[in-house]
Amino acid sequence: MRSSKFMGQEFPFWMKRFAQNRNATPIEHSHEFVELVYVVRGEAQHCFEGERYVIRAGDVFIINPGEVHAYDYEDEQQIEIINCLFMPSLIQEGLLRELGISRSMDFFYVQPFLNKEERFHHRLNLSGPHAATMLVIMESMMAEFEHRNPGFDTIIRLKMIELQIFLSRIYNLHQTKRHNVNYGEREVMARRIRGFLERNYGDKITLTSLVNVFNISERKLNRLMKEQVGMSVIELLHQIRIEKAKYLLEDQAEKVINVASMVGYEDPAFFSRLFHRIVGCPPGAYRKTIYK
């Protein structure tokens, strides 16, 4: 699914609340935007990347661009969910940095990039006051989105920041209570940085900008990533961008030069050389292998 089906470039956001049951045909799909899902009531099967997981009222999770998923239902199962679709560009990182919250966004920078078993067997489930707060925030966003009064886009952006802080706070409390997983501080920081790169790969990212976001020296940044993921932060960024490019190349209508720009490369020639070095063939040839 392309973002143009749901949202514009100036305000890359879309939101809807809906209910469905087994009469709905499960259609596996992926998309180029981020999808935040909150289960208001009911229970269903979530088909995600070839696996099935039970989801129920209070569950909240994120689907990344390119991940394949669908909903399925057994017997009398039905579900009501709120879907919040957005592009990472909805909220500029500079604003989060000015507010001093870039490093407190683990639900958005860490959890969505864990392996699928950990994401859905240990998903975030809200109840009581937390569930009520979640619903109030999301319903206020839907009201703004529906009525579109002057300034609605600014209010939604601010509400999204509130939502991100709220969910990250609960997620961190949830992680602290889990005794079977105990990540060290350096591993958590590496996950935060990787999550940031995964979410913002299309933007201009430099070592200087990363140093400012995570308040860490360039030397310590590269040493940390070498230790935790086996490569420098720029090497990791290139790897992430090329993987995203492979996904985008599945669209035959998208020109290679546009794909290069979408994954953060202003120079298409550099992009093609880098793609060839990492994948083993140029972008055009890779596309042909998909549709031969």
Structural summary, described in words:
- The protein has 292 residues and is of the alpha+beta class.
- The chain has helices at 93-99, 106-109, 116-121, 128-147, 152-177, 185-200, 207-214, 218-229, 233-248, 256-262, 268-279, 283-291, and strands at 13-21, 34-48, 51-56, 59-63, 69-72, 78-86, 124-125.
- Strands 1, 2, 3, 4, 5, 6 and 7 form a seven-stranded antiparallel sheet that branches.
- The longest helix has 26 residues, at 152-177.
- The protein is globular and about 50 Å long.
- The mean pLDDT is 86.
Which percent range fits the helix content? 40-55%
Percent of residues in beta strands = 15-25%
Largest sheet, in brief, is: 7 strands, antiparallel
Order of helices and strands: EEEEEEHHHEHHHHHHHHH
Distance between the termini: 22 Å
Keywords: DNA-binding, Transcription, Transcription regulation
Protein name: Helix-turn-helix transcriptional regulator
Organism: Paenibacillus oceani
Domain HTH araC/xylS-type: 191-289
